[in-house]
Amino acid sequence: MKIMKKTTLIIAAAALFMAANTVSAQNQEQRLTPEVMARLFPAGVVSPECNPDGSVTFRCQAPNAEKVELECQMYNGNRPMVKDERGVWTLTVTPDVPDIYPYAFIIDGTKIADPNNMYIFPNEGFKYSIVDVRGEAPSVQDIQDVPHGKISYRYYTSQNCKGIVRPMCVYTPAGYDPKGNEKLPVLYLIHGMTDTYETWFKVGHANIILDNLIASGQAKRMIVVMPYANPYIEMMAQGKADRYDSMDTDLITNEIIKEVIPFIEKNYNVLTDSNNRAIAGFSLGGRQTLACGLGHPELFKYVAAYAPAIFGNEYETNFANGTYAPIETLKKELKLMWLGTGKDDFLIQASLGLEEYLTKQGLKHTFYNPGGGHTWMNCRDYLELTAKELFK
Amino acid sequence: MKIMKKTTLIIAAAALFMAANTVSAQNQEQRLTPEVMARLFPAGVVSPECNPDGSVTFRCQAPNAEKVELECQMYNGNRPMVKDERGVWTLTVTPDVPDIYPYAFIIDGTKIADPNNMYIFPNEGFKYSIVDVRGEAPSVQDIQDVPHGKISYRYYTSQNCKGIVRPMCVYTPAGYDPKGNEKLPVLYLIHGMTDTYETWFKVGHANIILDNLIASGQAKRMIVVMPYANPYIEMMAQGKADRYDSMDTDLITNEIIKEVIPFIEKNYNVLTDSNNRAIAGFSLGGRQTLACGLGHPELFKYVAAYAPAIFGNEYETNFANGTYAPIETLKKELKLMWLGTGKDDFLIQASLGLEEYLTKQGLKHTFYNPGGGHTWMNCRDYLELTAKELFK
């Protein structure tokens, strides 16, 4: 290579870049400036670009579009992007606080993930990208130079779901020893509606939050299991379900109890008593958490619902019809009942109702009601706070 | 819930669906028909839909677009999609053979991933979606009811890359025991240019291929390590590199030898002699494989290059300047030298040149030259064939 003519290498590199679906490349070795990136990467732009002043510049190449907007959870609503002479639409935004924000471009009404950003929000339906705006000091959700656990993608055959193979993500902390003397407690952590088993990992940074909390002694060492709470898509694809019942909690409660817990307790070095099992979940996963957790205090002593998708006063019904265990049982059994919902969350009313009901019934609980809405920025906050309370 | 009025639940479900970024939902429990999916999922369409006759229907909602095309690796070039009265663009295509195909929509010149498909091609630049068209009988790349290994996401701090934290994916086979008597051999498997450490997992199905080959006795039990061969993006983001040298192989060779191998041999129950180490890679990863593997026969006895990004006769230069070990050394040391490149691969000429050179020099090798181009359909084929040859 050292003897090859520069021009040959330039052509070679260009060919490879073209094959990688890029626009053009004129040199294989140079500064990775936005201009160079623009040549190397397909949509011809760098996006997002986190600037030293804390702002973020988003760019979207759509020369033929009439209108491009940025939907970004840094703010409410959509904001128009501005087109330059190359057909690249740009907008620079500064978030109030550094955080990890989902965003999407809306090109003439069609919402898309940022073609230049490798970080995607795992979801069955919408496609958001995520941008990680870091502050001066690293936060609990930023990867730091501490011992790192791992996320494993596991697969099991679910009889509860008619024999389909199902995935899950499992976090094990640094130094976890499958055969050692240390048996770990387990948190079962459930995603929201249309999210997947990857969302708590890729967007929720569950592994990084746990790494940092464990390294600083703020959380107990634990395993975190992230099952896939929506089996319907694959079941229907295989002709094993003919309808999608999103509000029903029986299928996922059975999945956790009959499939996921046994799989974990067979394959991991864990404690298997209810004092060492917790369940938490966001949104629809919060609904499932309440059904599975409050319904089974013999299995879970720690229950945490993040902006749970419950409606009206259905918790009263659930206590009355046996979906949840009797209040008196829960008073005796539960070590933690935690409810967190943001003030701007569209589900706040039901959480306020549940909170009032639990208070009236005398069930000890924590209610966390910060600012913010139905977002993963809040979710990471909820996870951090509850992880500190578990198994203590 | 069972007592709540149906209308309340309908409103509740609708609110949740809206929050999940959907268009509308009129019932929480009904058949998951395309019409229902269209209401539940944001872009309002089901895509892709694999039909019983082996065809695939792609749908893209873009009511304001002038032109929408489907780029799909089932065929060459782009094909126009047809707009219906709802503004949904549709095209049905039948692949010649069932396989896993990348595709993208091109809306008025802007290439995007399918907003409705949760399966994304991990890449730094372009955003393709992937569709898995299954045949009558399951193939080696389809998940089957066999014992499943796992993919773990691991993180390490790389001194070779100036202290940044780096990710990798690691496959361990079913029944792997970190402390048991069985020590496993290791395949280091590298992605192509602009791909990431996830691409061999999510697109290459490396874990599924190995699960199936191991279950049927066609491959030895092994660990497969998928490092991230491009550290430049994160290094530049942290101000620790000021240029992107894609053709250089020194940084990644050092990364594998000084960081990745020591990490694996410290953290996994593996065999640590050269008879039990293999290296393989695709495209730019093939270039890196040749440099690292042929350059270090004291470390690797098995070397497999898939459509390697080598240009002109630079292999002669690399043998001459010591980037590769002397041919006579390789003749003595290597147990497998495997080269695979498709007949339609844009890099075929260099592979033909290398093949001729190795023949002339008397270095025993396998040359696999099937149909197909510079694609991941071919990659999975290459991995299947080489995995059967390793450590035997």
Question: Topology, pairings included?
Answer:
Two copies of one chain form a homodimer.
Chain A: H1 6-19, E1 29-30, H2 34-40, E2 49-50, E3 56-61, E4 68-72, E5 78-80, E6 82-83, E7 88-93, E8 100-107, E9 110-112, E10 129-132, E11 150-158, E12 164-172, E13 186-190, H3 199-202, H4 206-215, E14 223-227, H5 232-237, E15 243-245, H6 250-267, E16 277-282, H7 284-295, E17 302-306, H8 314-320, H9 327-333, E18 336-340, H10 348-361, E19 366-368, H11 376-387
Parallel strand pairs in A: 13-14, 13-16, 16-17, 17-18, 18-19
Antiparallel strand pairs in A: 2-3, 3-7, 4-5, 4-8, 6-7, 8-9, 8-10, 11-12, 12-14
Q: Could you please describe the fold and organization of this structure?
A:
Chain A is α/β, with parallel strands linked by helices and 392 residues long. Chain A has 2 domains: 6-132, Immunoglobulins (Immunoglobulin-like, Sandwich), CATH 2.60.40.10; 150-387, Rossmann fold, CATH 3.40.50.1820. Chain A has helices spanning 6-19, 34-40, 199-202, 206-215, 232-237, 250-267, 284-295, 314-320, 327-333, 348-361, 376-387, and strands at residues 29-30, 49-50, 56-61, 68-72, 78-80, 82-83, 88-93, 100-107, 110-112, 129-132, 150-158, 164-172, 186-190, 223-227, 243-245, 277-282, 302-306, 336-340, 366-368. Chain A has an 8-stranded mixed β-sheet, sandwiched between helices. In chain A, strands 4, 5, 8, 9 and 10 form a 5-stranded antiparallel β-sheet that branches. In chain A, a hairpin with a 5-residue loop joins strand 11 (150-158) and strand 12 (164-172). Chain A is globular. The termini of chain A are far apart. The model of chain A is unreliable at 1-15, 17-33 and 36-43 (pLDDT under 50). Chains A and B meet through helix 1, strand 1, strand 9, strand 11 and helix 5 of A and helix 1, strand 1, strand 9, strand 11 and helix 5 of B. Strand 15 of chain A pairs antiparallel with strand 1 of chain B.
